[in-house]
Amino acid sequence: MRRAVAIIIAGFIALALLGADKPIPWWQPLRQIKAWHLNQKGIQAYRTNEPDKALKSFRDAHKIAGDHPILLFNEGTTLLAQGRFKEAEQMLRSSLKGFSAKQTHEQSIVHYNLGNLYFAQKRWDEAAKAYIATLKRTPNDWDAKFNLELVLRRQKKPPQQQKKKQPPPPLPPPVNERTPLSKQLKGRLTAPWHGEKDW
Predict the structure, then answer these.
(1) Is 114:137 a contact under the CB 8 Å cutoff?
(2) Which domain holds residue 65?
(3) 0.70 cut: is pTM over it?
């Protein structure tokens, strides 16, 4: 495990050095390692259900490494878990802009989380679009398929109509004690009014 981590760090430093036009100061790769370490701390805190700690770590890493799409994604996901939807949406959208067209897996994960964000806010159309964008990039994502199915069901449901109060049944006509039967026959009533007992 440590060997794999060391290889990843070395590769990250090599990429940073190769992509530079001018020599990088000696301390720059160390800053990148520190940002990576803070990101890992944030991930660990997120997994142990400590979103405040996680957010602090991601933001500290962000200060060091700048607008790296993975850090923006992690920050947005943590904000989503805290229910801070507006901030989360901004971070996730910024993250999406940072990934190249070839990074389809990363893009699909961002779209999936945007779908979850819209789902939580009952923004069904936007949620459906986000899950469809996920499935375009990773067609076998069963979670996205399941969530899309839920969204489509919610879209088909008619809005709940309030039950109208039924008016009370009409009162029976006043009965003339002398000729009740003749009045019933005149009105051609063949059965008692609703609510009355049969006689």
Answers:
(1) no
(2) 2-156
(3) no
User: Residue 188 domain-assigned?
Assistant: no
Q: What is the pLDDT of residues 50-97, one digit of tens each?
A: 989 999 998 998 888 888 889 899 999 999 999 999 999 999 999 999
Residue 194: CA atoms inside 13 Å, Cβ hemisphere, count? 4
Crossing angle (nearest 10°) for helices 2-18 and 28-47: 130
CB contact at 8 A, 58 and 70: no
117-122-123-127 Cα dihedral, nearest 10 degrees: 50
39 within 8 A of 20, measured Cβ to Cβ: no
Please state the domain count of the chain.
1
The answer to whether residue 178 sits within a structural domain is no
pLDDT digits (tens, 9 = 90+) for 142-165: 999 999 999 999 887 665 555 566
Q: 27-45 burial, b for 16+ CB within 10 Å, e for fewer? A: eebeebeebbebbebbbeb
In a domain, 61, yes or no: yes
Whether 97 is in a domain gets the answer: yes
CATH number of 52's domain: 1.25.40.10
Q: How far is it, in rounded angstroms, from Cα 87 to Cα 68?
A: 17
